[in-house]
């Protein structure tokens, strides 16, 4: 498989790196399954109804899909999520958007907000030099992982049942 440059991953891939390495590999190799989960539908509903008046779905390079951006003195990137259960994956997905804008596109966007409208909570993030280094390392790890010929062995997780790959891994 031809490798991508480390800066060419999607936010979803960075998210999956934290959720499940098997999922990341399958998704990166374009192995897709029907998305019939109610949770997926609910997530879309929350997104669509919470920000009807905001500019959303900012697409950059056909690769980065940002929920919406607010421009004041600085640019703030918003990512809307259903619950804080997978917050670490959410955080690094958003950090990656900030990294991509700042390091790849040359747009200074170091502030991010994770928005959880169902619980009315917000988590603010700042892209620091330390986080940039961390992201660079994560991108290298993703590149190494997706270049493998076979997916990493599946490991059971509490959220496997709501994963689109459940049947692939466990049935
Ligand atoms: S079903 Fe579980 S192990 Fe399989 S890809 Fe999904 S999260 Fe990973």
The best one-word shape is globular
CATH class reads Alpha Beta
Strand content of the residues, in percent? 15-25%
Strand order of the largest sheet: 3-4-5-6
What does this entry look like structurally?
With 171 residues, the chain is α+β, with helices and mostly antiparallel strands. It is built from six helices and six strands, in the order H-H-H-E-E-E-E-H-E-E-H-H. It has a single domain, classed as Alpha-Beta Complex (Lambda Exonuclease, Chain A). It has a four-stranded mixed beta sheet with strand order 3-4-5-6, covered by helices on one side. Strands 1-2 form a two-stranded antiparallel ribbon. Strand 5 and strand 6 form a beta hairpin. The longest helix is centred in the middle third of the chain and has 18 residues. The chain is globular. The site of iron/sulfur cluster (SF4) has 11 residues, from helix 2 and helix 6. The site of iron/sulfur cluster has 11 residues, from helix 2 and helix 6.
């Amino acid at each position: 498989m031809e490798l991508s440059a480390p800066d060419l991953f999607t936010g979803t891939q960075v998210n999956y790196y934290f959720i499940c390495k098997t999922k990341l590999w399958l998704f990166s190799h374009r192995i897709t399954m029907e998305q019939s989960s109610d949770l997926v539908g609910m997530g879309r509903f929350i997104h669509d109804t919470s920000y009807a008046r905001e500019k959303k779905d900012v697409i950059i390079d056909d690769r980065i899909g940002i929920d919406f951006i607010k421009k004041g003195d600085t640019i703030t990137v918003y990512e809307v999520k259903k619950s804080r259960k997978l917050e670490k994956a959410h955080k690094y997905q958003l950090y990656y958007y900030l990294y991509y804008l700042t390091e790849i596109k040359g747009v200074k966007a170091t502030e991010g907000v994770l928005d959880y409208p169902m619980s009315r909570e917000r988590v603010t993030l700042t892209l620091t030099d330390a986080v940039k280094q961390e992201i660079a390392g994560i991108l290298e790890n993703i590149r190494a992982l997706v270049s493998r010929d076979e997916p990493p062995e599946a490991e059971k997780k509490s959220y496997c049942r709501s994963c689109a790959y459940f049947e692939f891994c466990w049935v």
